[in-house]
Write a structure and sequence with these properties.
two-stranded antiparallel sheet; mainly alpha; globular
């Protein structure tokens, strides 16, 4: 809305052209999202369902009784911010709709007694992942840039769709598994979103820089970068209230749309390996646990018998780490590791 307003009012008063500046819009949207979530959340969380706790989780008693499902409020404010500041272009409105679907799915799970069955959640996640993959490729060939390959690789949409769907599904569930320590999932996701926003805006979305680094330019990358920065702002407002000891929990209504967004934006850079680089700690923490459960359930194979998953439960129970130690150390590993891996990803071609 604001970019359209800027173009419309430009002839009335010259400074209105600032409303067409992508950087200004990113700053306005990120700040507004953070402030709105920070201010609105305490006024609405009394209406949210209460966390029922999980008997198998470490420290579950500390979360029981707290408002849960705040992710639905966060995503609602995020959607309004996106509609206000992002120019209307292809792909991002469809991805925003998927983010909302994932949040509604998670909220219904948060409010149901005992939660939804795993297979039901997995199937709904799969459907949302398919929609996200279709929105990304628009059923057209996709150009990828990959490590060790100098020339870009053009994939048929029918090859790209199953790969993208699997990666988005993995990101959704890995992020959901990481949401077990106050502030951990949100803090790691903020880092991932800032890195993704910087890549999409500063590299993929800039023809000269993309040409210099020998990666394909995508004119639709800048709106995706704006989506990343705006969600980071909304998460900052939420984390103000979720800092240990938390007063409110985002639940599946927050973790599932966050996982979807990180997965799709990573694929939006044109390199699937970016997901591993910006979300490596989340994948190790959550996705490896999913792999262990799948191997045990379907193939009766047990690996890492002495390691408890998610990994944040292992270090709290077996190593005696506090919630604050888990948060700080996991974030430090991700914050320091990502720039190094990104450098290798862009230069080893």
């Amino acid at each position: 809305m604001l970019p359209w307003l800027g173009h419309y009012l430009l002839s009335v008063y010259g400074p209105f052209r600032l409303l067409t500046s992508r950087l200004l819009l990113i700053g306005l949207g990120t700040s507004a999202g953070a402030l709105l979530v920070w201010a609105v959340l305490p006024r609405l969380w009394r209406r949210l369902p209460k966390d029922q706790g999980r008997a198998h989780a470490v420290g579950a008693a500390q979360s029981a009784g707290k408002p849960v499902g705040a992710g639905l409020i966060l995503v609602g404010i995020y959607g309004v911010a996106c509609l206000l500041v992002i120019p209307f272009e292809e792909r991002w409105p469809e991805l925003l709709a998927c983010v909302l679907f994932a949040s509604i799915e998670g909220f219904l799970d948060d409010r149901s007694r005992g939660g939804w069955a795993e297979y039901r959640l997995g199937l709904v996640d799969l459907g949302i992942s398919v929609l996200g993959a279709v929105a990304l490729c628009q059923l057209s060939p996709v150009t990828l840039w990959l490590p060790l390959l100098k020339a870009p690789l053009v994939l048929s949409p029918w090859i790209y769709l199953p790969v993208a769907t699997a990666l988005i599904w993995l990101s959704i569930n890995a992020t959901n598994c990481t949401d077990g320590v106050d502030g951990l999932s949100g803090s790691l996701t903020i880092l991932a979103l800032f890195y993704l926003g910087s890549i999409l805006y500063g590299i993929i979305g800039q023809p000269a820089i993309a040409r210099y680094l020998q990666v394909p330019h995508d004119h639709g990358a800048v709106p995706l970068a704006m989506m990343a920065f705006l969600m980071a702002g909304c998460l900052a407002g939420y984390l103000w209230h979720n800092a240990n000891p938390s007063r409110v929990l985002m639940g599946d209504a927050g973790s599932r749309p966050l996982g979807f967004l990180v997965g799709t934006l990573a694929l939006g850079t044109g390199n699937p390996f970016v997901l591993l680089v910006v979300g490596g700690v989340v994948l190790v923490n959550g996705a490896t646990g999913l792999a262990k459960v799948a191997l045990l359930r379907f193939f009766r194979i047990c690996i890492f018998r002495r390691v408890r998953w998610p990994l944040h439960d292992h270090v709290r129970q077996r190593l005696g780490w506090s919630n604050t130690q888990v948060l700080v150390r996991f974030v430090l590993v991700q914050a320091l590791g990502t720039p190094i891996l990104l450098l290798l990803l862009f230069k080893i071609r």
